[in-house]
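Why does residue order matter? Because the sequence determines the fold. Keep that principle in mind as you read this record.
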Amino acid sequence: MSYVAVSVLALVLDYSTLLGMVRLAHYDPSLSAAVSYMVGAMLHYGLSRRFVFAPGWLHGKRHGEFAAFMATSLVGTGITTLIIFINNHYALSGLFWAKTCSVLVSFICTYFLRKHFVFASPDTVATMPKPRHLSLVLGIFPTLALRGRQLPAWSVAGSLIGLAAVILCRHLGQPWNGTDGGDGALFSAIAHNYLQYGIFNIHFGQATNMAPVSQLTDLHYYQHHPPLLPLLIAASFAVFGEHEAAARLVPCAATLVSLIVFYRLSVRGFGKGLALLALFIFASYPGILFYGRKVGFEAVTLCLMLLAIASYIELLSKRTLAHALALGVFLLAALLSDWPAYFLSLAFAIHYAFYTPKHRWQWLVSSAFLLLPVLVFGWFEYQASLVVANSLTDLLHQGMAYAGLISPDSALAKTYVEAVLDFTPKQYFLRLSENMDKMFAYPILLCSLLGLWHIKKLAELPRFLIATTLFIGIANCVLFYRNVFFLELWIYYLAVPLSWLAALELQTLVGAGLASKALGHYSARRAWGFVVVLVLVGAAPRLMAFHNQQVRVLPEHTLELASFMPALAEQIKHRSYPDALIASNLNLPRPVLYYAQREIKGGVSSVAALPNQEHIPRYFLLYPNPSQQTTALHQQLLALGTPQAFTVQAHRFLWFNLDALATHKHSAR
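Structure:
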C-alpha cells in the first residue's frame, strides 16, 4: 500500500508533465512519455527512500542508490515509450489509455527490480515491519502514514491538487462541442481579434466577429463584462498558439491557483486538519471540476478574489508595503475580471471601517476600497464608449433584465430576452435545488447548510473568511436572481464558503460520534472512510453528467462525434469567401462559426429571407433532414443553383452557390 501511494504521487507529476509537453508544447508523444516518466521517477525515488523501502546493499551510498533506482526507471521508460509509440503509430486508442496501460505494466516490473536489486534484499524485506495502510487522524481527515511516519499535510494537499489537475486538464484540447463550447468559441474569437487587430487599436473592445473584416468599423462588440479574461486568453494564444488547449489553460491554471490559495487560507483560519478536509470537498465539487476548466469569467474571478483576500489578511497582520501592493494588484485584476469582485471590494470597505482597530487613516483606506471600483468601472466604460456609442445604457439595461427590473411588456423586453422569460416561485425553487445538486452534490450540500450553526462559535479570522465569501456568492445571486434560474454556474462562487461549512459540520459530527461512542465499533478510520466515499459517490455521477452534455448541430438521434463541428466548419471554410453571405436551415452553434471563420445565418426556411447585395456572394448549406419537411426549400434552392454534395462523418449535406454567375473579385480565401 505504501508503494502504491507513492506511485500515485509520482504518477500525478508524470502525467501532468506528459500533458503539458503533448497538449501545450506539441512534442512527440513517445519522447514526451520518456521525459515525463523520468521526471516522475525522481519524485518516486525521494518518497520511496523515505517512506517505503529500507536501505539495501548500497546503504550509505546515496549517489549509487539513486543511480541504481534511475537505472530501473529506464526499464519503465522503455516500456512506456514502446507502448505509446505502438499506440500512436497504429492509432489504437487515446493517449490517456495508452499511458494508463503502460503504467500498469511498468509498475509491476519496476517494483520487482527496486525491491530485490536497489533497496533491501529479499531476506531483509521479509524481516521488516509491514507498512501500515492509510490511517486517519482522529476527528480531522485522512493523512498518509507510511512505515509509521505520517506524510506532512502539504504532501496530502499536493496530492489532492495534483489529482484535481489531472481531471481538469484531461482532454484539454477537446473541440468546443460540450456545454462550455459556446463561451469557449466566443472568447477565443475575441482573443483572436485582439491579436489580429491590436488591443489598443480597438480600445480593449471585445470584438465578437468570427470572420475577418477589412475595416475596424465593421467589428461588433460584446461589452457586458470587463476585458481581463479575453486578454489572458490572447496572451496564451500568443505564447502557445491558437487552439482549444491554450484557451482552456487560462481557467485551468486559475482553478489550480484557487485550490492552493484556498488551502493556505484554510490552514490560516481553521488549522491543517480541517483545511485538508475542506480542500478535499472543494476539489471534488462537480461544479469546480467542470466549470473550473470552462473558458469563462468564474474561474479567473474566483482565483483573483481569493488572492485578494489572502493579501488583505496578510496586510492586516503585518501592514507592509509589499502586502498593500499585492492587495491592490489582485483586487484591481479581480475588478477587471467580472462584477462579483465589486462585492468583495464593498466587503473590504465595511470590514476595514468597522471591524479593525481604530487609527487615523482608517476611513481613508476604507474609502479607497469604495473608490477603486468606481475608477475601474469608469475606465472600462470610457474604453467601451470609444467602440460602442450606447455601451453604458446597454450594460445597465442588461443588468436590469438580470435583476428583474424590466417589465415583460416594455419595449426593452424585445431586446433583452431575460426580461420576457417568466417562471413561478415553485419553478424557481425547483430549478435552484436542481442546480445546487448538480454543482455541489446534495450529500455534502446538506452538511454545508448544517454548518451555518457553527459560524457564531468561530474565531474572528475564520468567521471573516466564511462571511466574506458567503456575502459575495449570495449578493451575486440575490441581485441578479433571474440568472440563477437560467445559468447553473451563477452559483459557482458559493463553492468556497460551502466547503468550509461542510468541513466544520463533518468534523463536528464524526468527532462527537467517536467521542461519545455513538458510532459503536466503528473506528476513526472507518468513519472518515465513509465520509470520503460519501463525497466521491456524490461527485462522480454529477461530474460525468456534466461531461456527457453536448452542443449539437444535428438532431439528437444522429451520431455526432467530438470532431464533427471542426470537420463541418472546414468544409464551409473551403467552399466560401470570408465576406460571403452564408445561410443554412440548421441552427449552427457558435463553435461552427468560430472554426469556419465565417458569419452564418442559421434557421433559414425560405430563400426569400436572404438579402441580395451586389458583389456579395451568397451560399446556402442545406441539411436534408428526413424527419423534417425540406422539399420546398430544396426546390427553391435548385432554382438558383446546382448543389455540391459532401459528407461529414457519413452525414450528407448540400452546398448551394446562389450567385454562381455573379462576378466577384476576392483576395485569397
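The beta strands are 135-136, 142-143, 145-146, 149-150, 581-584, 600-601, 618-622, 644-648, 651-657.
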